Amino acid sequence: MNQSHPNQEEEPNKAKLEREFKNVILVINGYCETLLNSEGLSAIQHDVVREIFAAGSRAEKIAALLFNHPSDLPETGMLLDLAGVLDHTEAAIRILLGEKVVFSVVKQNFLPWVAMEKEVVEQTLFTLAIQARDNLPPGGKLTIVAKRILLKEEYVRLNPKTTAGEYVQLAVETSGPKNPSELLVAAVKPDSTLGNESGIICRDLEKLDRIVRKNHGWLQIESVPDGGNRVSLFLPIEAKQPVQGIEEAKSVIVQGGKESILVVEDDESVRLLTVSVLQKSGYRVLNAASAEEALEVWKRHSGRPALLLTDLVMPGNVSGKELAEKLEAQKPSLKVIYASGYSASVCAELFKMERGFEFIQKPFRPSKLTELVRKVLDSDKVST
Hints:
The protein has helices spanning about 15-35, 45-65, 80-95, 120-135, 155-160, 180-185, 195-215, 270-280, 290-300, 320-330, 345-350, 365-380, and strands spanning about 80, 100-105, 115, 140-150, 165-175, 220-225, 230-235, 260-265, 285-290, 305-310, 335-340, 360. It is α/β, with parallel strands linked by helices.
């Protein structure tokens, strides 16, 4: 059978590793969040679960940095503690680079907060670090510099697409006789004849430039005297600076109704957690480990489910999208939520998804899942 979609048997090893890693994180963090929202833990048990949850959350962030592609970065800005992001990513980047590259971070004290998504900064730093690791010779240097800078009118005259004012400059500098500067410069040369990997870097930096400009900053790529290069993000300083930072909102499991939901997920641990979370929220839940099994469950229960929650990449010859199409043909009012370790934009391209499809990326939290399920079920209800 010819397929236009990827299935698990055809996934490259890196994709399989990514999927397994994200599923493990999903299960650990999912059960931790569920326990922390329960009332049956002693104080000591609560502290233990909280520490496990904190470790799992760090693993989740590392997975996002390692596996998510910069082309999938969000474009909406938010208030960001750049110094905190650098503190968080420094150790991970050092491990990633190993002993081959001399790595340092030069950070000005009391950096002001800026308008930018944290994921944009983190994934940019990791992408450029990976390029440095793969292209610099032993002993090459990678330096991250973050400082407050005042740009005057004279600078604007020399750089017409910029604006005078106060910014934080986040720069990634590489040096060494075989640095990847030609790859980075390709970002401003769309007609570059470099290889496919360079084309990816080109598209990444073009996307990054659009994101930064949308938040009233810009991207600058330049050579440095020692033969290396510097990629700088100029990020506008927020007028209203927080006094003590921003508190993370407590996760809340959203209580549901009495609708029936069909969960299709081949990873047993993820499936059991998902079913448990939805049942505790009040839903009636059916489940299956494959699209073929889901079709049998659907037949036995006369198409009763109001919502299908399915992974997109499935074992066998039927993808999550094809399963949804089969069931929607029988029940047009069926609501569908797709799940995947891949990002929404990657899934949209791989599976030729229509605009506006409902999606949750792994690893997700129970609170996020229950919130989305309730939102989808409440949207544009159609009587059956």
